[in-house]
Amino acid sequence: MSTTFHIRLASLAAKDNERFLAFVDSQLPWLESVGSGGQWGSTPRGNVEASQKKAFTRVQKSEACEGKPYSSYWGRAYVLEAEVDVDSLSDEVKQLSGPPNENGRVRVPVAGMVLESTSADYVRSILPEIDEKSPFLYLFFLASDRRTSSINKGSGAFLINHAKEEATRLGIRRIAGDCWTGNGRKLVQFYESQGFKSIEDFEAGDQKWPGTVFEMRI
Ligand SMILES: CC(C)(COP(=O)(O)OP(=O)(O)OC[C@H]1O[C@@H](n2cnc3c(N)ncnc32)[C@H](O)[C@@H]1OP(=O)(O)O)[C@@H](O)C(=O)NCCC(=O)NCCS
């Protein structure tokens, strides 16, 4: 049977905060190999206290906001799982999966996404913290687990589609976010392929990290 995707809310009990950092760390060698090492650097985040704290806070906020309407303190963190036949998996990916069901199918966490109602602080010259006239959901985090590349194809696109559904459910007509523009804007092209449009480029921090703010009206 083929792969099916399922989205669940992230939880501290499931250690999804740690999982999100593992997703980032799984991408670092790949990013380097395609010439995008400047996007996230080469330091694994799993053991960095500031990264652990940030991931914990995002998942904690998501749990606190469950069932709450959109507000200036709104956030949701999601985990995308791929359901596959356990026999189709390599030993490495089997170790990342949950227990098999009676049909020999397992769920493997393959990607994560965080949405919030305020923009990132380093894009405020382009996008206000909150725009009351044209409110948005801000895509704070999107990453797949490179270790699961045999089954995660399309996971980012699937989660972005879920962001659109979530926005519609909340009565919000706009999704915004930012990404790195280096390496020939390959990542920007991915977001454009998903329906986003770049609004304006920026350089963040002392290192002048090159980025763009993008948005999609729905
Ligand atoms: C973004 C992401 C979740 C999309 O997952 P997906 O829907 O399964 O799509 P793919 O992984 O197949 O990526 C689509 C295309 O974008 C490219 N791409 C994705 N992330 C990229 C990046 N950071 N830098 C350069 N190219 C990237 C892929 O190489 C692929 O190109 P191809 O179509 O020529 O093969 C996943 O690619 C990912 O986690 N990338 C690394 C982390 C990242 O950059 N996250 C976004 C932060 S703003």
From TrEMBL:
Domain of life: Eukaryota
SUPFAM superfamilies associated with the record: Acyl-CoA N-acyltransferases (Nat) (SSF55729)
Protein name: N-acetyltransferase domain-containing protein
Organism: Periconia macrospinosa
